[in-house]
Amino acid sequence: MSAPQNAADPAGHPTGRPGVHFDGRSAARPEGHSEGGSGGRTVLPEQQRQVEDELIDTVLASFRDTPDPRLKELMQSLVRHLHGFIRDVRLTEAEWQQAVDFLTDAGHITTDRRQEFVLLSDVLGASMQTINVNHEAAGSATEATVVGPFFVDGAPEIPIGGDLAGGAPGEPCWVEGTVTDTDGKPIARARLDIWEADKDGLYDVQYGPDRTAGRGHLFTDDRGRYAFWGLTPTPYPIPHDGPVGQLLHKTGRSPLRASHLHFKATAPGHRAVITHIFVEGDRLLTHDAVFGVKDSLVKRFDRQAPGTPPPDGRTLTDLSWTRVRFDIVLRRA
After folding, report:
1. Helix (H, G, I), strand (E, B) or coil at 12
2. Collapsed DSSP state (helix, strand, coil) of residue 319
3. Which end of the chain is flanked by fewer CB atoms within 10 Å, N or C?
């Protein structure tokens, strides 16, 4: 039998939301239970509870006449959740000031080439959850994941079987697959944009504006097939020399991303998908800094010994290389 909707855990908290109702009001706590934070109260006095409840009501009412109904919904929900958090942890004034300083530092380090607030959203899982909400799982359709900060419009076109690496250092990787709809019908002339880091964990744009490597686009053939040469993905850290990096350090989290290769697939009449493929066996699959890994996107990169003939007759001399297959399935628009 399933638990009732308002079931409590052994400590007496409403299941899933310890000590806080959905409207931001503090739930009654049993005798002897600490309110948390530095206050150390066992029971919140009724007079204090009323003061906090009245403030929430006042703030919510301030948005009551918002002309845009969606903006009104967003702001009132934000108020409920924000006040609920403050009351649940009994936030101290010093902690509030630390949060303000953190956000100020994030603003100072943000430039037109670096977005610290997006990075913060990523490491809190907010970016990935927004993608989940907006790209519902649908049968065989390829799952979406985070865009990342290094997509660039206007990447050069390469032919099927062409070299996307563009001279970037790393182990060669042959990537092939098909693009179909959810009924299995091949999609001809689907566009694939692909970008990846080199073996040193850097994207071309991190070297400067005049470099293009590890990046390109191509189109599927009449049978929905594609193939290209890229690089075997390797792990790399997200930027961690700023406030987000300090947050990760203080919480014992790694800034490393699991090894991956970025794809953006588009075709007329179909929903676009932005996704990655990840390397099977990578130890970081369960510790990706931005929570972008999904089981369906983990692929086997088969390593080929030096001297193994590549599928297109390319000369690789004494180099090892890998190959991977990634079949993309698009939903109809």
Report:
1. coil
2. coil
3. N
End-to-end Cα spacing for the chain = 40
CA–CA gap between residue 142 and residue 162 (Å, rounded) = 24
**Within a 13 Å sphere around the CA of 231, how many CA atoms are in the beta-carbon half?**
26
Distance of alpha carbon 46 from alpha carbon 223, whole angstroms: 70
Region 190-207 average pLDDT? 92
CA-CA distance, 243 to 194, in Å (whole number)?
30
Cβ count within 10 A of residue 254: 15
- H-run or E-run covering 264: strand 260-266
User: Can you tell me the mean pLDDT for 99-109?
Assistant: 97
> For residues 166 and 225, is the Cβ–Cβ distance under 8 A?
no
DSSP E strand boundaries for 50-190: 162-163, 172-181
Least confident of 13-17, 131-135, 302-306, 326-330: 13-17
Mean pLDDT of 84-103: 97
Q: What is the mean pLDDT of residues 14-39?
A: 44
Contact 189, 167 (CB under 8 A): no
pLDDT of residue 287: 95
